[in-house]
Amino acid sequence: MVLKDIIAISGEPGLFRFIAQGKNSIIVEHLETKKRSSAFGTAKVSSLEDIAIFTENEDMPLSKVFDLIWDKSNGGPAIDGKADGAKLKNWFEDILPDYDKDKVYTSDIKKVALWYNILHKLNLLVKEEAEEKKTEETEKAHVKEAAAPAKKKKKAAAPGADKK
Hints:
This protein is α+β, with helices and mostly antiparallel strands and 164 residues long. It is 35% helix and 17% strand.
């Protein structure tokens, strides 16, 4: 999944979109309410693109976990993030069997489910392959436009211009 410019702010509910860099803060927009606000340097801001889940082998990026959830739920919503802890753990183990049970807490699993459902509800879950394909097609179209020879318009000769 493409998670560029989507961030979580510690202590703030929901997810935000990065809008601009201010002098001492960043300007963000809440994904659900569309309200803009500032996140100052003291706030703990995490880009979803930089978050990974601990597994027994190597850490798995959150985008790959969202891909697994998408595939497992056939493109539907995930389990409710407010479900019982045992249900959440069983659900997450079904999604990612080799996650590190000592390092990944129930609160982390709740956040993954809540974030996935927010992004799903807003149709922001875009597969990386689809995004790359769209970018490639756009680039090809621009290359074709640039490579196409400019058509020259023929000027109509003024009447009597060829007579001398």
